[in-house]
Amino acid sequence: MIALAGLAALFLLTALAYAMVGFGGGSTYTALLVLADTDYRILPAISLACNITVVTGSVIQYGSAGLIRWKRILPLAAVSVPMAFLGGLMEIPERAFITILGLSLLASAAALVIRKPATAGPHKTLPAWSGPALGGGIGFLAGLVGIGGGIFLAPILHLLRWGKAREIAAAASVFILVNSIAGLTGQVQRLSGTGDIGAIIDYWPLLPAVLIGGQIGVWLGRTRTSDIWLIRLTALLVLFVAARLLWRASGL
Fold first, then answer.
1. Distance of CA 4 to the CA centre of its chain
2. Which of 73, 164, 179, 182 matches a 20 to 30 Å C-alpha distance to 188?
3. If we measure between CA atoms, which residue out of 183, 122, 118 comes closest to residue 148?
4. What is the pLDDT of residues 47-100, one digit of tens each?
5. For residues 76 and 162, what is the distance between their CA atoms, to the nearest angstrom?
6. Buried b (16+ CB within 10 A) or exposed e, 76-88
């Protein structure tokens, strides 16, 4: 079992790495909590709280820079928010939870590898049905396992040439924030009914850890000219953690 101090250090590094590329780190927080033998029923709430802590600063910075395209983000978020809340309300068996999380991390690693800036040229407008469908599916997964979903959304938007690289990063940050808030609301409501809500308080040191790491990551992301090495390293680490989780799920 990973000690809380060691877990806080890993969370700080995770927040730093993910914030550099516009994400919150929720998928990796959740995986680290599983590997630390945290009760799987409370760990999505912890991860979502950490997500909110990290991406709030990103959204503020992107907003002040005028990079948030609210009218284009709204169709993605309109369905994702209630679906994230619904996912947060659901409780699933531990084996299914860890399996879904492991598969999500495999997809996250692939998303990090294929993440490329949108190519030059006119940006595309998504069909009217695709925004709600895309947002709804990712939002439900976000609430269920304690992630924000931006790590899945951003590569898709890049492939669709939805906007410029910084606009997509801003959209992913907003998407992560609103889904994390909705998912956490559902998780807290579910835990309040089981009496497990108090167990979350013991993990409070993780919040200042991700706050520090996230702020450093946002600053580095704005000042570095290239983050490709960090993206590849993060993808490798996520892949390793995913393999451990799936191996663990197979033995439950």
1. 21
2. 73
3. 183
4. 999 999 999 988 888 888 888 888 888 888 888 999 989 988 888 888 888 888
5. 12
6. bbebbbebbbbbb
Residue whose token pair is 């993780």? 206
Element (H, E) at 70: helix 70-89
Nearest to 60, CA basis, from 220, 177, 180, 213: 177
| Token duo for residue 223 | 């000042």
Q: How far apart are CA 216 and CA 229, in angstroms?
A: 17
If one counts the domains in the chain, the total is 1
Geometric angle at alpha carbon 171, from 224 and 200, rounded to 5°:
90
Taking CA 102 as the corner, what is the angle to CA 99 and CA 103, rounded to the nearest 5 degrees? 85
**Closest residue by Cα to residue 176 from 12, 15, 11:** 15
pLDDT in tens, 103-149: 887 887 777 676 655 554 555 566 666 777 888 888 898 888 878 88
Which residue range is the domain that position 43 belongs to?
4-250
SS3 92: coil
CA distances from 36 to 1, 12, 242 (A): 5, 16, 14
Q: How far is residue 5's CA from residue 226's CA, in Å, rounded to a whole number?
A: 31
Output the CA torsion sign for 119, 122, 127, 131.
Answer: positive
